[in-house]
Fold these 2 entries.
Entry 1:
Amino acid sequence: MTANNTDWTALQQAEDMAYFRADLCLYSPESYTLEEKRDICNEMMGTSKAMLDAMRADFEQLPADARSELLDMLCQSGVESPEWWWDVLVGEGDPLYRELETI
């Protein structure tokens, strides 16, 4: 657990399960009602946003110099774009979640 008591395992498992359900739905879409498909989409969005929100909360608890170093490293990592990291950790969050509301 981190200083803010984030249960990363639970967050990751919830996100994994949401995406697993989506994979099942894609494999057999006729087996799901429209409402079930909507719920699956909302669960995917909600669990992914929860992960990003927890990342931001952990990031905000770091000392300023550590935040700066970590952000520089993440921006240079090649994983996502520097703009994405800035938005998620410092800005207003992932633009996807600002534009999309639950269905």
Entry 2:
Amino acid sequence: MPIFHPNDPEYCEYGCPICTRARRGVPWAVAVQKAELALTLGGCPWGRARRRKYGVTPDQPIPVSPTDGSI
């Protein structure tokens, strides 16, 4: 856990044991994440960094960027 890097949105996206499982739909992780979002008003520092970088809350997947139209 990157304790010394609380502004690392990549940890929330790929390494957090709660957020990664909650986004996949694991029931216990969804419940823990909902409680965390409610109690901390936005999630942990890594979840808030993810919101700043990607524009989505820790419980939402990152939107797919539009392609340039080439095949």
